[in-house]
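COURSE: Structural Biology Practicum
ASSIGNMENT: Worksheet 4, Part C
STUDENT ID: 0417
INSTRUCTIONS: Below are two proteins. For each, the amino acid sequence is given first, followed by its structure token string. Answer the questions at the end about the second protein only.

PROTEIN I
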Amino acid sequence: MNVFSTSNIKITLWCTWALTVTHEACEYTEQKFNAEKTGGDPVIPSPKLDTDLVMACDRLVDRLIKAYKNYIQTQIDIARYSKLISPKDTGHNEEREERLLERCPPGHEGTKLVEIPATILDASDAIITWYLPDALTDATQIKWCLQKEIWAASDLLAPMLEKSVKNQLDPEVSASLKGASSEKILKAIVRPAAIATVALRVMHPEQYWAGLRAFTSLGEKAESKELPKMSETLQYWASVFNSLSVICNWQTPNHRDHLSIPECFNILTTVGNYSNARMSMPSLQLEFRRLVIHGVHAVEGDRIAWAWYMRDSVHVYAGVPSCGWARDSILDVWISIPDSGYSGLNR
């Protein structure tokens, strides 16, 4: 293992966790992204990764590189903007939103339509958004495989009612993952969970490591406090995101996601047989064919959206500090996965 010079924080992973395989996919994708960006040598994937996952990662790198090279600079100061809003700013008060837009204008007139992969930067070069259309894959059989898995998993999740974790000393596994089908549900979402996490590893490395560290802490607390259901669920959870919302055929008004961490990315994945889909971000005066206000318009056809995000309350419980805004930097971190026991990582 190598030591990252700015920190002495140790992260441990259980080799039996699904998240360990996800981490292998993240390592491969980050290395391939850097090689594509700098013209480096070809990267060989780990034999632990199945062909479908490798092909999906390769497609994702293609989209990430295209977005990285196509940046859109805005004049908004996202850190200042985040300080101006409060939980009361839901995004529904048009007069309030107009005042916020006047104080933090994006720097262009009218609404811009973004139709190809792109990154959106603020005035300080913080990355606000990555837009990755067709990111799942362009290989028909793999695309169908991923879409089929997401549809099947969504069917299993349909009856779920998430149990609130407010006013509890220790976080709990959501009610939908406590029943007889919990293992089946967790296994069904493994690959989509891995793809979302792989994307995050490139888009916001600091957030990725914060999420990984949070799950390490949850695993330790689950054992020390004898929380068997938590330990069991962590074995199959394959994402560094701690929350997932599933939305089917919904048109959403402009809103903000106040349960999320302001500096962190949410990842929205959509699949289905639909057309004319649009996502608007009025705060940036952009429309795509998130602390920022956003909404999804109605579509023609059937659409399922999976929204991955991190609840700050989980990170607070896990003792993980907040991360900064995403910028153009890739952390130099290494990890080794032994055949048994723990794997260690120093940052």
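PROTEIN II
(use this one for the questions)
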Amino acid sequence: MHLAHEVKLLASSLLADPHSRTLGSVQALILLCHWPLPAATMTDDLTSMYSALATTIALQLGAHRPLHSHEFTKRSIDPSSDEGQERRIAWHLCHIVGYSIATDLGLPSTLQDDWINTSAASSAPSAFTPLPTRIVQLLRLARFSDRVSRALGGCADSSSGVPAGVTSAALLRCFSGELTDIERGLGSVSADVSLVALLTRVRVCSYGLQLESSQSSAGARSQLASECYVGCVRVLDIVLGMDPAVLVKWPQTLLWGFGQACITLISLVSGPDGRPFDTPSALMKVSEAFRVSLLLAVVDGDLLSRLSNYLGFAAKAAHDKLGHGGPTSTAKGKAAEGSTLTVSRYGMPNWIGSGVPPCPYRVSILKVICLM
């Protein structure tokens, strides 16, 4: 914990010392976002702060304007040089990380899309040195996730941010088709990019499954449930099929998405939309995921130890529910009896919050899973 304290002091010094705001500082902050320091609650976790600080420094350095670097620095930097390439990659990573953090926490992103990101994600020829394929793939998925969140959870005419049901249903159909096109265009992907793509599909489905039953047809809802179930199971298959020694090196932000897939799967098979699926098998996979997350936790209080605590709680609650008559018969789009419906946290985080029943420990549980 002494090292964590020193790292926090170094990061905070960037606010006071303008001379330390360099490209290396941006890169270091992005690393801290991928492998965050232990934190007991969301309010203790500085990941979103580090992401915002990295973006601010990158803006001051002119990383967002590769053809006009001379307007931000003392010299002109060729965007196709090694240094220019590093600046572009750092700017793209600011967006990939920032969008991912906002999506995971169910919060609006403070980032804004721009020309350099649009150009990088496009398949059109570029005058710049080609970016690493993995960066382009992750950028396309991150930008898509942000647009989905803004459209389906950031409506300015709604107190919760959720647009009218008819509007949401129409937007969902458009986004689902667009995501299919993006998936086809990704080409060959690594295991972690495949995981991000699957989680993106699950997040789109989770919006649709939170609509009232009157706002979508039974066929459309059944299709969403099927895609959501398959996506969650495939995410678990990828993670459970990997060597823990490899998984422990993955960014914790990615492993948190794996945890969200577990919780989404529990919520799905515990409700009426999960009736057609193999619930015992799904819960068995979640139990395996619980054991893996215990192995990956580094210290008490880190992201994965908090995830382990919640997975154990949620899986047991689902098993207990199945032991008393099977999935709940609550109307679609409603919270289960005795639970508190969460509606303003964007997609999957809404499901996670709604899945925590009212009890003396509700606030403590929400803090454990980063929703408070």
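ANSWER KEY EXCERPT:
Q1: The two ends are 23 Å apart (CA to CA).
Q2: Residues 36 and 133 are 25 Å apart (CA to CA).
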